[in-house]
Structure formats: structure tokens, C-alpha cells
Write a structure and sequence with these properties.
heterodimer; A: about 325 residues; mainly alpha; 12 helices; B: about 400 residues; ABC transporter involved in vitamin B12 uptake, BtuC; two-stranded antiparallel sheet; 15 helices; about 70% helix; globular
Chain lengths: ~325, ~400
């Protein structure tokens, strides 16, 4: 009934301005927002909370995806069941990397940037050695296939629809976002994490094991990237350079949103995802990407602390 | 003022450096007599990569701005030259309706776009080869450096620029031929006479030597001193009354201009240009040459580009995992040899070394050893703790 009403309303003003494709585009934009939020979340921890310029973030996503490939090839495991394994494996690797590399470059952001870039090359090379450069494919669970039809026309063909898997991505992204927010702002562990970034020496004096907190925080951020890798692995093929596609987007999300509060990451993801979808509808996909990247450069230029950060008094 | 940093006082004529550079030039000058045409043009390309690395070193090693967008300026210069050669090939053979390149015809263009048409004339193409990348760099530099954006954000901006421009060039199929780039182009000729590969090699050699000497002169001058001071302590330099932004814009634009010329020569030599040279991986290559060779030394990046390029050429025939080796090398250099491999060269050849002597005490063998020990300690601790845990939990019988 409601459906019919909406239809007649939409088609009544059909002359000139088409609203259905725009809604469609907005909905597919929501799918992009889910991916952006998922990939940006890990970076919001490693960069936002710890201030580490992590250019190997994309490679942790790739590692998570390969954990899923490995588990599926060996045990024929369901995609959802591999999520904890992806989290654990990438978190452990992240902890080891924090211990051996990141910790040593503390307070030298440009060196950290360079080291993580080298690390990303190494991780790609190692995975290529282990799994070869061949494209791998992951089976997405059958109960997540299919589309959710929001609006159908008279013949029953879907006008506006979104695939269940996209909804699943958004769901996971929001769930992880809430868990992370709770961890950061609701637990004593999160308070310690924030304390260490705000004033390392003071935190140390108050008896916080700063090096352990550092390691834990970095490992958690990498683990989130691993989950992102698992969830995204069935969208496209899995290959060693896959992380590169997500790296720049994740960075843009975090930088746009600002690193002061976690909510900035959500806002950045929504802003970039939706504007990307709308510009892509009006012009074309590559042009949309170029315009969004240029817009992000302008944002960094005028507000390096991010759009959604409360201005602090100097 | 001259007492502040040792760099200025050494600006007396460095006989050792001149001698070494002269010997190096002579060695490379006799190469065409010894090796085949393919080897020579390959070496010429490496020289261009070397001058690209020197250009990045001016920006990064001396002024402290790390950029992954060096490949963008390189390719802009390359495309200027590429269009000139492409248009002159199609002008010669009029198979494709007038002088329209075939990819433009197949993408439905009727006539040459106004922004490409002037490039068919040699002087305009040569000017564009320098001015397009330099002008683009000037715009970016003016936009970024007049703000309070700090070092790391500039690096992220450079990543975004490289990514955006690469996407743009790939998407504009009709004007740039997309991912295929400009191939099948005319050889570079001089008043109707085709320049042989050896001639091009000579041009590359002379260009790189000029870049090296020019960069050396620049870094030894007062300007170079200010640039290094900006790297060390930006706030203090601005308190002294210098306009930091204009210095940064100048060196950034100059570096882009050098990169543009290198790109143009590269296209003449390589007969091919594509958006690959614009994308982040190629920009990374340049950063790696500078990092491994030694930031703040001019010989280091050049030598790294020459040697790594040669080694890569042979290694890629043997192993698929050359990139892995490069990545490990980069990690080792960043962690243990922050001034690059050039800082391990004994001090007798010191003139060619880092002009910023402040850190050079860091990088002798003793420092390296201390770094290694320092690095292994947390690992040892971890292993020890795990062992104790395992031992304590061992089932008792």
C-alpha cells in the first residue's frame, strides 16, 4: 500500500527530473560508506589514537583477506566464522610489527611513514611468495546473496534495491564502530589508550604500562583492518596488491573526518561515500574520484585537523 | 652568520668532488664504445631516473618535504614530449585523416583539441615540457605551503595528487589513450636528422651532470643553507624573518622542472609514456632511491638509481621477488642507517658526502651495532617471557 503510494508520488513528477535513479545512487552510496567506514576504522585507531602514519594499512586488509582464503581452502569454513581468525592473525602480526619497527621510530612521523611503506612492500612480497600472485576467490555465504527490494514497479521489477551483502558490510562496520567507541570511551583500557597518547610521560608516572598499551592499541587497529579484509574479500578477487586500492580511500576518510573523535571517521565516510556516489551519477566514476580527492586536498589545506573536530584554543 | 653551520665555509672549490665527478663523467663517456645500443639506452634511462632522484633529494633531503608526486611531474614533461613526437609521426604519414593520432580517431574526435594542438611545434613542446610540470607544481606549492599544513599531511596530499592525476589520465581515453599511453611515436630529430641512441645517451649524461653540479652549487649557496635550516627548525627560520613558504615553493617548482625535462628526455629515449609513471608505485621508486642512497647527499640518490636499476634489470630475470628485496632493504635503511648507504662510505671521500655534518657521527659502524642490539632486545624479552610461560605451564609428572 505504502509502496504504491510512494510510486504514484514518484512518477507524478516524472517530467524532467528523475528521482528514482538518484535514490538508487544514494543507496549504492550507502554501500560505499560501509566499505569506507570498515577500512577507515582501523586507521582511526592507529593514526587517530596513536598518531602513527601507517601506510601498511592496506596490507593488513590484504592479510585479513588471505586468512579467509587460507581457512576456506583448508577447512572449507564459512566466511563469517573466519572473522575471529582474521582478527587474531592480523592483530598478532601487528603487535610484532609494533614491537620491532613502529616502537623504534617513535616521535619521527616521516621515518614511520617511510618504514611502514617499506613494510607494505615486504608484506606484499611475502604473501606473493606464499600464495603466488594468482587471483583468489572467496565464497560468500549463500544466505547473504540476493537483493533487498525496496521499491518495485508494476511488473515486479526492482527499481531500488540493495544487495544483502552490502547491508551486511554496513552492519559489520557499524557494529565494529560501536564496539570500538565503547572500548575507547567506556572502558578503563580505552582511557589508558587515550591517556598514553595525550601525555605519555604522565601516563607512565601514573603506572600505566605504556609500551604494552601501545602494542595493544596498534594490534587492535591492525585486527580491525583484518576484519575489513575478510568482509571485503568476497566483493572482489583477493590478490597481493589489493590493499593498495583501499589505502588512499581509508586515509582520505580519516583525514577528512578528523582524528579527534571517533565519530569523525563515521562522518568522513558518509561524506566521501555519498558525495562520490552523487558526483558519479552526475558525471562519471573516475571524474568523481578525482573531484573527491581534490576536495580532500582542499580540506586538508584549510582544516588539517579535519572537518569534524572542535577547534581547540591554542 | 657564516659561523652557524659548517656547510658555508666549505664552499671553497671542492677539488676532490670535481675530480671524482670528472672521472665518473669520463668513465660513462666511454661506455658507448664498449656496449651495445640496448645497454646504452638503458643506462641513459637510469641517468634520467638518477636526475629525478636528485630533484626529489633537493625537496626531501634538503628541505624536508617528502613527496610521492615526483612521478607526476616526470610524466607531465614526458607527455609534452610524447605529444610532440606522436603528432609529428602522424603528420608524416597521413593515414589517419590529417594529423590526428589514431587513438583520437577511434575515440571519435574530429580535430585536434586546442590544448594539444600547439604541442606539434618543437619550441612550444620544449617550453611546455618544463613549464607545464613547473607551473602545476607552482600551483600546488602555492596552495599547500602558504598554510599551516605540516610535513606528514603534505606527504598524504602528494599521494592524493598522484592518485587523482593517474585516475584522470586513465579516464580521458580520447585525449591520452588511457592506460595504453602514447606509444608508436616518432624518434626525436634535430633539423630533420634523426638523433641516434648514442646522441640521446649523451644528452642524458650531460643533463644529469648538469643537474648534479647545479644541485651541488645550489645546496652550497646561501639559499641551500636556508633550505637546510628550514628542514632542521622551521619556526626558528621564520622568526629570523625569512618567508619560508616562498623558499619551499621555489625548490618544489625547481624540482618539478628538472623532473619534467627528465621525463621529456625519457620519452625520447623510451619511445613510450603511460600513466604508470604517474601512479604512486613509480613515485615510491624515486623515494626509495633517495632513501637508500642517502637523504641530503647528492651522489647517493644518483648512485642508488644507477646501481639499483642495473641490479633490478638482472635480478628480474632470475627472481620474481625483487620488490620484496627492495622492501627489506628500505626497512633496514630506515631502521638502522637513517642517512642512507652513502653515510657508510669512508670519510676520505667525504666531500661528496652529506653537507649536514650534524648527523654523520650517527652512522659509523659502532652506531649501527648499537642500533642492532637495541632492536633485538625487545624480541629477546618477548622470547624469554614466552619461554618462561611455557616452562611454568609445562605439565608436571
Amino acid at each position: 500500500m505504502l509502496n504504491q503510494l510512494a510510486l504514484t508520488y514518484l512518477f507524478a513528477q516524472n517530467s524532467g527530473f528523475q528521482i528514482v535513479p538518484i535514490i538508487n545512487q544514494l543507496i549504492s552510496g550507502v554501500g560505499i560508506v560501509g566499505i569506507l567506514l570498515l577500512t577507515g576504522l582501523g586507521l582511526a585507531i592507529t593514526f587517530g589514537v596513536m598518531g602513527i602514519i601507517n601506510l601498511a594499512h592496506g596490507e593488513f586488509i590484504m592479510l585479513g583477506a588471505y586468512v579467509t582464503v587460507f581457512m576456506q581452502e583448508l577447512f572449507d569454513m564459512d566466511l563469517l566464522l573466519t572473522i575471529p581468525f582474521a582478527f587474531l592473525v592480523t592483530a598478532v602480526i601487528g603487535a610484532l610489527i609494533e614491537l620491532t619497527i613502529i616502537r623504534r621510530l617513535h616521535g619521527r612521523p616521516l621515518e614511520t611513514l617511510l618504514a611502514t611503506w617499506g613494510l607494505s612492500i615486504v608484506l606484499r612480497g611475502v604473501i606473493k611468495l606464499l600464495f603466488t600472485a594468482q587471483l583468489k576467490y572467496v565464497q560468500s555465504p549463500s544466505y547473504l546473496s540476493g537483493n533487498l527490494k525496496l521499491l518495485t514497479n508494476e511488473q515486479g521489477l526492482p527499481l531500488i534495491s540493495i544487495s544483502h551483502y552490502r547491508l551486511f558490510i554496513i552492519g559489520i562496520a557499524i557494529a565494529l564502530f560501536l564496539i570500538t567507541a565503547y572500548l575507547l570511551y567506556g572502558t578503563s583500557l580505552g582511557r589508558k589508550m587515550r591517556a598514553v597518547t595525550q601525555n605519555r610521560d604522565m601516563a607512565k608516572c601514573l603506572g600505566i604500562n605504556t609500551s604494552l598499551v601501545d602494542m595493544g592499541t596498534f594490534a587492535y587497529g591492525c585486527g580491525l583492518a583484518g576484519i575489513a579484509g575478510t568482509v571485503l574479500s568476497s566483493l572482489k578477487s583477493v590478490s597481493p596488491p589489493m590493499g593498495q586500492d583501499y589505502l588512499i580511500d581509508a586515509w582520505m576518510v580519516v583525514v577528512t573526518g578528523g582524528v579527534d573523535k571517533l565519530i569523525g571517521t563515521l562522518a568522513g565516510a558518509v561524506l566521501i561515500g555519498e558525495s562520490n556516489a552523487i558526483i558519479a551519477f552526475l558525471l562519471s566514476d573516475p571524474v568523481a574520484r578525482v573531484i573527491v580527492l581534490l576536495a580532500v586536498i582542499v580540506i586538508i589545506r584549510y582544516r588539517p585537523e579535519g572537518l569534524f573536530t572542535v577547534q581547540k584554543r591554542g | 652568520m657564516t659561523q652557524v653551520l659548517p656547510g658555508v665555509q666549505e664552499s671553497a672549490f671542492p677539488r676532490k668532488l670535481a675530480l671524482m665527478a670528472g672521472i665518473g663523467f669520463l668513465i660513462f663517456a666511454v661506455f658507448p664504445l664498449l656496449f651495445g645500443e640496448f645497454q646504452i639506452s638503458f643506462l641513459g634511462k637510469l641517468f634520467l631516473f638518477g636526475s629525478l632522484a636528485i630533484a626529489l633529494d633537493l625537496v626531501w633531503g634538503f628541505t624536508g618535504i617528502l613527496s610521492f608526486a615526483q612521478g607526476v611531474f616526470f610524466s607531465l614533461g614526458g607527455y609534452a614530449m610524447g605529444y610532440y613526437l606522436k603528432l609529428n609521426l602522424t603528420a608524416g604519414s597521413s593515414d589517419y585523416g590529417g594529423n590526428l593520432p589514431e587513438f583520437m580517431v577511434s575515440n571519435g574526435l574530429e580535430q585536434l583539441p586546442w590544448f594539444i594542438a600547439p604541442l606539434q611545434y618543437f619550441p612550444i613542446a620544449m617550453v611546455a615540457m618544463v613549464l607545464v610540470p613547473a607551473g602545476f607544481a607552482y600551483l600546488i606549492g602555492w596552495f599547500i605551503f602558504t598554510s599551516r599544513v605540516s610535513g606528514v599531511y603534505i606527504t598524504i596530499i602528494s599521494l592524493a595528487i598522484a592518485s587523482a592525476l593517474n585516475t584522470f589520465f586513465v579516464s580521458q581515453q580520447a585525449y591520452t589513450n588511457g592506460t595504453n599511453g602514447l606509444s608508436d611515436i616518432a624518434p626525436l630529430s634535430f633539423f630533420g636528422a634523426k638523433i641516434p641512441p648514442i646522441g640521446l645517451y649523451w644528452m642524458c649524461l650531460v643533463f644529469t651532470t648538469a643537474v648534479l653540479i647545479g644541485a651541488w652549487w645550489l645546496t652550497k649557496s646561501n639559499l641551500g643553507l636556508i633550505l637546510r635550516s628550514i628542514k632542521e627548525n622551521e619556526a626558528r627560520v621564520s622568526f629570523l624573518g625569512y618567508n619560508i613558504a616562498s623558499y619551499k615553493i621555489f625548490i618544489w617548482t625547481l624540482s618539478a622542472g628538472i623532473a619534467g625535462i627528465a621525463g621529456g628526455l625519457f620519452v625520447a629515449l623510451n619511445q613510450f609514456i603511460s600513466p604508470v609513471y604517474m601512479a604512486v608505485p613509480f613515485g615510491t621508486q624515486v623515494v626509495i632511491w633517495v632513501a637508500i642512497g642517502g637523504r641530503g647527499t647528492l651522489i647517493g640518490p644518483l648512485a642508488a638509481a644507477l646501481i639499483l636499476g642495473q641490479v633490478q634489470n638482472y635480478a628480474e630475470q632470475i627472481t620474481q621477488d625483487w620488490q620484496l628485496i627492495i622492501g627489506v632493504l628500505l626497512l633496514i635503511v630506515v631502521l638502522f642507517i637513517p642517512n642512507g648507504l652513502m653515510s657508510l662510505v669512508p670519510k676520505q671521500f667525504g666531500q661528496a658526502k652529506s653537507p649536514s655534518k650534524s648527523n654523520s657521527s650517527h652512522s659509523d659502524a659502532g652506531y649501527l651495532q648499537a642500533q642492532l642490539v637495541d632492536w633485538i632486545t625487545p624480541l629477546q624479552k618477548l622470547i624469554k617471557t614466552t619461554l618462561t610461560i611455557v616452562r611454568n605451564n609445562r605439565p608436571r609428572c
